[in-house]
Amino acid sequence: MNYLSTKLKLNQQTNVQEFINLLNNMHQLCLSNDNFQPGMRRIDTMTLFSFDNQDILGISLMKHHRIYEYTYQVSSNDLYVTITTKGSSPLKSPDCILYLIENDYLLPHSFFQYDTPLQLTSSNIDTFYHELKHPDLPIVYLNNHVNTRYPKLKNELALAAQGFAFVLYSENEELDNQIYHYLNMYPTSYIFYSSLDYKMITPTKHDKTITYMQNILKRLQDYMTKKDYTLSLAKLKTRYLHEELDEMKEDEKNILNHLEHQSDNLDSKLQELFERMEDIEQTISRVQQDNDNLLDIIQLQDYYPILIKGDIKEYYDGEQKDIILDILKQEARNNPSNEILNDIIKQNPEIGLRKKYLEGINKILLSNNKINTRMIDKLWDYGICIHKGEHYYSYFFDDEHYLITLSSTPSDMNAVRQMYRTFRKLYF
Fold first, then answer.
1. Cα gap 377→382, rounded to integer Å
2. pLDDT tens digits for 85-125?
3. b/e 333-346 (16+ beta carbons within 10 angstroms → b)
4. Is 418 left (phi over 0), alpha (psi -120 to 50) or beta?
5. What is the pLDDT of residues 16-31, one digit of tens each?
6. Nearest Cα to Cα of residue 237 among 14, 132, 82
7. Which helix (H) or strand (E) element contains residue 71?
8. Continuous segment of H or E residues that includes residue 5
């Protein structure tokens, strides 16, 4: 199940009829202005709504196994697009957003381009800092190391993410270091949702271009699933129902005041009120069921979680899962007849990064009999950051919570193995 939501701005002021024409052209519909009268109504498989004297227009429709939701605010030119797609094909910019971009319906961005990656330079880095404060869309930042390793990634990613993310890349390690210093961040690539909300997107040692790009798109999709837009269809439905309910409550108050002076009509008026209240309650129930069904479509999984993921930061994908599975496997070895443990282990394959990290670290340690520059550089790739003071000491990804003081000259292979066991015990 793929889910995409984004907020765009149209190129020029668009009235109701022009917005309807745009929808008709994109989806081969036959809508007219009469379909967007104030309130909310259904036409076949579509839900249409209009609020605030037609300042806010919206439509929800299903076509080709996709659910499209558009909300347009005339006064601000803001267009909110939400698309839910059945299946598990890789996330990419849908045809409707490509249509808006290719036909110049969208307002050009002052800094980025929708379909082209932007190179970071010394002349635009300050503008980038300014954009980070309130970015219109998420910004995928590919540092020089990633850009050199995957030279085709920036262009392929920019095309795949048109309309829901911008791509910024660097060809200068010095500029990368300026950004890390300015934002006080670990040196790697990131997705920026704002200057205070960002996620690392460090590739693994064996990631190919397509695998790495799909991981980035998956991170963007996870963000969009949680993003809450003010003019989302669900919120507008709720607002409409609340307004209807408020009107009904006002009607109820007026009717009751009138019935105090019209005792002879009390029974008939009360019956009318109760029937109207039942109608609105049924409407609320139906719409709530629609919202619940839509939420189920977005969040549907074939399983329920046994454990909730902890809040502690993960330093590589699947860190918490692999640690738990390792503990379960040790317990299963001690209790081989425990069918529940064996079944859980079978149904939950390891991500595998923990095992690869440990194998790589062990290989590096066994090939060296003392701490040297070569060992330090190689261990850094696995998150073990060794520094030198009065003694050598190490952090895990430079996190001061994970401090180990090291012997600079392991005396024999047992000492090397002991260092490995120490790393494994505290870091993994």
1. 10
2. 776 665 677 788 888 888 888 988 889 999 999 999 999 99
3. eeeeeeeebeeeee
4. alpha
5. 888 888 888 888 888 8
6. 82
7. strand 66-73
8. strand 2-9
